[in-house]
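Q: My labmate handed me this sequence with no annotations at all. I'd like to see what the chain might look like in three dimensions before we decide whether it's worth expressing. Could you predict it?
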Amino acid sequence: MTEYIASLDQGTTSTRCIIFDHRGQIIAAAQKEHRQIYPQPGWVEHDALEIWQRTQEVARQAAAQLAPGDRLIGLGITNQRETVVVWDPRSGQPYANAIVWQDTRSKEICDDLARDGGQDRFRPKTGLPLATYFSGPKIKWMLDNLPGLRAAAERGEALFGNVDSWLIWNLTGGTNGGAHVTDVTNASRTLLMNLNTLDWDEEILATLGIPRAMLPRIVPSSASSAWGTTAADGAFQCVMPVCGDLGDQQAALVGQACFAPGEAKNTYGTGCFMLMNTGSAITPSQSGLLTTLGYQFGQQPAVYALEGSIAITGALVQWMRDNLGLISHSAEIETLAATVSDNGGIYFVPAFSGLFAPYWRSDARGAIVGMTRYINKGHLARAALEATAYQTREVLEAMHKDSGVELKTLKVDGGMVYNELLMQFQADLLGVAVVRPKVAETTALGAAYAAGLAIGFWQGTDDLRDNWQAGRVWQPAMPPETRQALYRGWLKAVERTFNWVE
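A: Here is what I predict for the chain of 502 residues:
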């Protein structure tokens, strides 16, 4: 009989269940996509019940791949952060579709709050600027716009959670007493948690008019006493503790074994997210980055991080596939981009949801700059890929300003790191080596690590470091003068996107 750890990775476009062994190797996996719902410009929604259904399906499929006698002994959750679910604990029914992290409907709320104290009004407590990105303004929008919801929340008949809370509640019993919790990393993305106390901030709750009764209990990312267990007749067909919980980007930080201050990773997914471990110190950003939680294991001190968040990277490839029809499958973007030797002088700035780090401009909108009749679809594909690398360089430069740490290599993960053209251009543009680990599913792996540490499957972070292995390395090969000229062109293009939304 062999024991394994299960991980549920609930992302923006799909849900995966991956089962890991003690070496951090993948034993079984299953994945299913869910719908993206766009009711009007700037609005992005998910059906929370569909996500729960997909979660059960992939759990069942992955567990069925185990050999007879093999046993799952712990479950970790990782999730798309800032996406808001509000549900009725009596029926288990959401009051509305989940509002996704990319959604911008709360812009007016953020603008109103910024009139008294500016965009950084809550930053000293939360490490975050006022932005549509975070959960708090989305909750306020729902309370203000869904009839009867505020009264229900005050009566304790409406629970809020990022997607981790929604899944944990359902996995641990749901209407029969499911655990209503969130870990410190997810709580740090709400604009409601105080970084010093690791608790909900009463003053901010009062300002936004959010009843504390609807909020989950904040817990460590790895819990020695589980929040609950899966049901014997549930999707996994076994009873095991649910004891690991990390927001997706923090999970990747853990999965990449970035346990020392100054170590950083970049995840290339729907968006792009660079996190740097800053240790037990809360490091305020002066350069448009976020100060956030990295992780907290059991009763150990919390570990903080600096984060650069980019809204649209892989989502731009999906847009070219679904909206323009230039490709049939996302992987075809590399083949199309390789039909040309450069971008033909164009830059694609994908400010579909405004610009996140380091600008935080909700008034920005997407633009293709430098168009001539010479441009063909290959140039468009190449410019779309290059946009991810340019945005990453902007974040890396901001991180260097705030931390004083100059990276020698960049650890990368996520779906786009299998795009050879993009990864080589990223190394060229940064002038540093880009390293993909042997096990690139680091988000799911980080959640598994959090659960495994809680139950002693792994003894400590040294065990996790020993598991990390480099899989592919890209070395920079671009002349410095070319690198700088291309980057200057990008910065000019970004300026063209401002002030589209008044």
